[in-house]
């Protein structure tokens, strides 16, 4: 096992949205229905805290059968969820009070969709500005590619390639975050240095 190297961040914020969807056709507008983030300590790679809420969609409040089967999120869970503006304000409060705007943190995602496409689209719907701190992130698939020479399309090839055990349900946001955190830890154990891979204006 390679030795872990010091990182330039104090925390990695592992994020994985789930959103309204249907089989073979796009839903307009697509809306976030699960908003999970894990605060991972960049020295220990343990989860220090988490933010997790279900979000009640406004434009397409009834989930499709496909969406419920894919994500295992139930209609009851989103019906009991809060509207996006409320969840987003609570998220911003969590960032400020739990993570700290002055601390060095980096969002970690599996792909670029969450922060490049979904969050800006959702913010547009609600006339919100995307916070500056959400405009830079690390796509863990690129770190995996650097360490293995293989660029994969999804999470499971990384789980299998690193000989990890998959936790929970695929496409359940909080479970996906836990698996991404395990991938992050496994790559750190191989001496990976984590740096931003994408930034938007």
TrEMBL record:
<keyword id="KW-0540">Nuclease</keyword>
<dbReference type="InterPro" id="IPR013520">
    <property type="entry name" value="Ribonucl_H"/>
</dbReference>
<keyword id="KW-0378">Hydrolase</keyword>
<dbReference type="InterPro" id="IPR036397">
    <property type="entry name" value="RNaseH_sf"/>
</dbReference>
<dbReference type="InterPro" id="IPR047201">
    <property type="entry name" value="ERI-1_3'hExo-like"/>
</dbReference>
<keyword id="KW-0269">Exonuclease</keyword>
<dbReference type="Pfam" id="PF00929">
    <property type="entry name" value="RNase_T"/>
</dbReference>
<dbReference type="InterPro" id="IPR051274">
    <property type="entry name" value="3-5_Exoribonuclease"/>
</dbReference>
<feature type="domain" description="Exonuclease">
    <location>
        <begin position="11"/>
        <end position="193"/>
    </location>
</feature>
<dbReference type="GO" id="GO:0003676">
    <property type="term" value="F:nucleic acid binding"/>
</dbReference>
<protein>
    <recommendedName>
        <fullName>Exonuclease domain-containing protein</fullName>
    </recommendedName>
</protein>
<dbReference type="GO" id="GO:0000175">
    <property type="term" value="F:3'-5'-RNA exonuclease activity"/>
</dbReference>
<dbReference type="InterPro" id="IPR012337">
    <property type="entry name" value="RNaseH-like_sf"/>
</dbReference>
């Amino acid at each position: 096992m390679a030795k872990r190297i010091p990182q330039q961040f104090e925390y990695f914020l592992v994020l994985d949205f789930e959103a309204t969807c249907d089989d073979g056709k796009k839903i307009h507008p697509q809306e976030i229905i699960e908003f999970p983030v894990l605060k991972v300590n960049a020295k220990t790679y343990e989860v220090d805290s988490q933010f997790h809420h279900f979000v009640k969609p406004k434009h397409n409040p009834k989930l499709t059968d496909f969406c419920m089967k894919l994500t295992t999120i139930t209609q009851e869970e989103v019906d009991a969820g809060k509207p996006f503006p409320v969840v987003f304000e609570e998220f911003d409060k969590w960032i400020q009070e739990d993570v700290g705007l002055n601390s060095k943190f980096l969002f970690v995602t599996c792909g670029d969709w969450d922060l490049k496409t979904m969050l800006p689209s959702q913010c547009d719907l609600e006339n919100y500005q995307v916070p500056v701190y959400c405009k830079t992130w690390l796509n863990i698939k690129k770190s995996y590619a650097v360490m293995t020479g293989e660029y994969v399309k999804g999470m499971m090839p990384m789980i299998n390639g690193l000989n990890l055990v998959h936790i929970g349900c695929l496409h359940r946001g909080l479970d996906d975050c836990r698996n991404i955190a395990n991938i992050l830890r496994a790559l750190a154990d191989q001496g990976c240095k984590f740096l931003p891979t994408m930034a938007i204006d």
